[in-house]
Amino acid sequence: MTYAPGTTEIEDRRIETGIGWQAIADHIDRPLVWTVAALLGSHPVPQQEASAVGELLGLSNETVAALQRQPYRTSDPSLSTDPTIYRFVELINVYGPAFKALIHEEFGDGIMSAINCNVSFARRQHPDGDRVVVTIDGKFLPYQW
User: Fold this and answer.
1) pTM higher than the cut 0.85
2) Between the chain's N and C termini, which has fewer beta carbons within 10 Å?
3) pLDDT, tens digit, for every residue of 51-110?
4) Residues with catalytic function
5) DSSP per residue over 107-124, as a string?
């Protein structure tokens, strides 16, 4: 997997301390999914939040600095072999065309922003087994012709 420099240290310290992702997100007052994505290397972390995570987990100065760098956002083909991640790929492969058709019918010619969006994660109890709830709330961006 492609992670930002220091990700191994972050995971090691998080596991050693028993501090969960939600506790880290709460500590820096950021959304849970954003926090996890940032600490896994997908977003730059502002200096104040990077320092706060560093203090909380006892990270090296090098890792705190690495968290603040602009990441490369490229795809890693090996991710699609992970069963959990593959299910998201499968979901888009199956429902992507329907999402596109519904967006165009409801909003017109355009896209849902993946940059200007909020992503939330929750667990919901269900009689047939607990449910994973992922919500993507993205801004509609009309094509400009």
Assistant:
1) no
2) C
3) 999 999 999 999 999 999 999 888 888 888 899 999 999 999 999 999 999 999 999 999
4) 87, 90, 113
5) H-SEEEEEEEEEEEEEEE
